[in-house]
Design brief:
Strands 4-3-5 form a three-stranded antiparallel β-sheet. The chain has a two-stranded antiparallel ribbon with strand order 1-2. The protein is built from five helices and five strands, in the order αβββββαααα. The protein has one domain: YlxR-like (Hypothetical Cytosolic Protein, Chain: A, 2-Layer Sandwich), CATH 3.30.1230. By secondary structure, it is of the alpha+beta class. The relative contact order is 0.12.
């Protein structure tokens, strides 16, 4: 009986725990990989952190349009990052959310003129790498 308890305790310890983060808009706790991370560096440069490894102050937001709209309306990212969020970043966030919500259909929204979607950059980057290998 004691042996079974010891095995159960050891197996629980061996399981890797996934970090939980809170969405700034809906305040729901989710797995870190289910949320989008926006980072502000010490210089005040705000970027979308797709790898979730950039240094600096980070804020997390769900890949849901309602959360993005709520965060923008209430200026929640500015509060969490303690610096202003440029309009270009909001465009990139909108593009990323639209891209994630409809993976088979492509983008459901058009990016504002002069802005580039991070998903497009990543796709073009992988295509250029493939061409260089040939």
């Amino acid at each position: 009986m004691i042996w079974r308890k010891a095995v159960r305790i050891l197996s629980e310890r061996r399981q890797k725990r996934r970090p939980l983060r809170t969405c700034v808009a809906c305040r729901e706790k989710r797995d870190q990989r289910e949320l989008m991370r926006i980072t502000a560096s010490k210089d005040g440069v705000v970027t979308l952190d797709s790898q979730q490894k950039l240094p600096g102050r980070g804020a997390y937001i769900c890949y849901r349009q309602e959360c993005v709209e709520k965060a923008k309306k209430r200026d929640l990212l500015r509060r969490a990052l303690k610096c202003s969020v440029p309009e270009e970043i909001w465009g990139i966030i909108d593009c990323t959310v639209a891209d994630v919500s409809s993976p088979g259909k492509g983008l459901t929204r058009r990016m504002p003129e002069g802005m580039v979607c991070m998903a497009d950059i990543e796709r073009k980057g992988s295509e250029s790498v493939d061409r260089q290998e040939e």
